[in-house]
Structure formats: C-alpha cells, structure tokens
Amino acid sequence: MSTFVKAPQPLDAEYFRTRLLGWFDQYGRTHLPWQQDRSPYRVWVSEIMLQQTQVATVIGYFERFMQRFPDVAALAAADQDEVLHLWTGLGYYARARNLHRAAQCVVHEHGGEFPVESVEALSGLPGIGRSTAGAIIAQATGHRAPILDGNVKRVLTRLHGVEGWPGRPEVERRLWQLAEHYTPHWRCADFTQAMMDMGATLCTRRRPSCLLCPFEADCVAHARGEEHRFPEPKPKKEKPVRQTLMLMLRDEDGRILLEQRPSSGLWGGLWGLPQFDDQGALEAWLGHEMSDSVVQGQWRCFTHAFTHFRLEITPVQAHLPHQGNRHAEAGRRWYDPDQPDSIGLAAPVKALLESLSSSTLL
C-alpha cells in the first residue's frame, strides 16, 4: 500500500478552469433530462440516483420518477411502497427511503422550498452529504459550491498524483482543498458538470482516454504511466458470506406470500419472500403458520453481492392448498406474479417472482 505524501502544488486555477470549460463547451453533456427545466427538486433527485449508478442506467428511472412525482409535494405525499417500487432495480435502497424522508422534511419544515442558501443547510436533509449538496446548489442555482464525488476524486488524484485511499481523512482533506482551489465564482453549473463529465467520459476507472484529455501534459499519473494506480483503492477485506433460504409459498390461486421487511437494515421497507437461516427454521415456521403446506423442493443456490458481504440464496418451493382468510395480517400480502403490484422489491426477489409465471405453477 502507498503511504500518504504531500502532492505537487495545484495548477493555476484560471488555467485549469479555462481548459476544462473549453473542453466542456465542445464535448460536455448538456442534454441530460435533469439539465432541462432545472429546479432544485429535479437536480436533487438526479444527484441521489446518480450516486454509485451510471448515467445510462439512471435516465429511464429519472424520467419515470418525474412523470409520477413531478414535484416535491407529490413525492412527500406518496406511500413509501410506491417510491420503492419505482426505485426497484437501482439498488442501494436507503437512497430511496432518504429521498422520501427528505421530501417530507422539505414540505413540512421548509415550506416546500429546498434550503439551497448554503451547503450546511441543504446537507441537513436526509441522504444529502457535502458533495451532493454542492452539486445541487451549483447545478440548480449557479452559485459557487465545490463538489467531490467519485468522478472528481479520480480526476484530482490522477492529475496531482495524490497518494493514499481517498477515504482516509488526510487524503480527503487534500482533495477538498484542490476542489476549493479550482471551483470558480462564474459558470458554476457548467464547471460542476464538466468535472463530473471528465471523470465519467475521459478519466474513467479503466482505460482512461488520456490522449483526448485537456490536461494530458499536466497529469502526474499520466507522466508516470501510472493512471491505473490512482486513486488508491480501499484496503481490501475478504467479504464474509451469509446464507439464507427464501420461501416461495404459493397458494391454490398461484399467488406468492410476501412479507414486508423492517424499515431499516437490509432491503429496508421492501417486500420480500420469508427468509430463514436453515431448513429446520423454515419447516418450524411452516408447521406453526401454514400447517397444511407442502414443501416441494429447492432451487439451485445463487449469490447476491452487497457492499460488505455476499448472500447465498437458496429458494425453497412450497404449496398451500387452502389459503382461506387467515393470513391477511399486517406486514404480509399475497402477490400475483402475473398481475404484479406496484410495490418495492429487492432485485433477487423480483427476479424470482418473475420466474413464477402461470406457466410454472408449483
């Protein structure tokens, strides 16, 4: 692992801005959906969606989200289930829960207006950190607010040869100093977009297009032939592996039993299949809750990767001949795979439910 050393002095700020904005005027992205009819609300939703997600993936989700929730009041008034449903497939569902909570805060505590007067005020909303707040202010109001998202970190660490993992406090402080140094008081929205575009389209994680970069002659990493080494990755730790059994219990009408997960934690607030640590726990639950059910076997195990661990999922088929009305309690629902409800589903659960069409009756 590299040790942290003081990076070279920054470039002249005016030189940097002139070259960056010159490149942006020719090659930058200016026709993204959230760049049209800009408002703090539209920019905010896009920035949250773009966290750890590529632009190409976000565009469709953003357009559907805006169609259903055209303003912050509509989002604040929505049920969390519907918000999570429109988020299904984007992952990192805490973003959607925080988005919903933040909308309610804006409506009930700020009179429906985003507190874009300062980074500090805006970052007081759920799910908005310093960099996201800066991006919203710069993009929506044109006021000066530095940012430091993943793309910008990559550009600055390579340009200056900044050693160390950017998650380390001393490295992050150095990068914020550089971001502050370069951010202008004019064309702030374009400058912010240009920094993000540089990282997303030229200074990419793999195979950066150095020959097309306006800073090819200035980049420390390029001069060393070490673009691949910056930014330094987070120190690796072996991801632990967990196992779970997912019960696919189908009634005589072909519907699947779902349970709503707790509001926080893994897949918080989403609907999913009942989960168990082992076969004994699953069978004990069936014997107590669904005594006339019949277990019909297991599907092949598959793995779903999270940030900090891997989950090995084994689907278990079961059939309930006579459902009656005894299971209509809070936190449970019977879901028809052929007529799906508008509810939030975790990606592996959604895939399993889609496989249970009428042609695959248990």
UniProtKB/TrEMBL annotation:
Record note on cofactor: Binds 1 [4Fe-4S] cluster.
Domain HhH-GPD: 49-201
InterPro entries attached to this UniProt entry: A/G_AdeGlyc_MutY, DNA_glycosylase, HhH-GPD_domain, HhH_base_excis_C, MIG/MutY, MutY_C, NUDIX_hydrolase-like_dom_sf
Keyword Nucleotide-binding: no
A biological-process GO annotation: mismatch repair
Annotated Gene3D superfamilies: Helix-hairpin-Helix base-excision DNA repair enzymes (C-terminal), Hypothetical protein, domain 2, Nucleoside Triphosphate Pyrophosphohydrolase
One Pfam family linked to the record: HhH-GPD
Keywords, comma-separated and alphabetical: 4Fe-4S, DNA damage, DNA repair, Glycosidase, Hydrolase, Iron, Iron-sulfur, Metal-binding
Top-level enzyme category: hydrolase
Keyword check for Iron: yes
EC number: 3.2.2.31
Cofactor field: [4Fe-4S] cluster
GO-annotated molecular function: 4 iron, 4 sulfur cluster binding; 8-oxo-7,8-dihydroguanine DNA N-glycosylase activity; adenine/guanine mispair binding; metal ion binding; oxidized purine DNA binding; purine-specific mismatch base pair DNA N-glycosylase activity
Organism superkingdom: Bacteria
Family note: Belongs to the Nth/MutY family.
Role according to the record: Adenine glycosylase active on G-A mispairs. MutY also corrects error-prone DNA synthesis past GO lesions which are due to the oxidatively damaged form of guanine: 7,8-dihydro-8-oxoguanine (8-oxo-dGTP).
Protein name (database record): Adenine DNA glycosylase
Lineage, top ranks: Bacteria, Pseudomonadati, Pseudomonadota, Gammaproteobacteria, Oceanospirillales
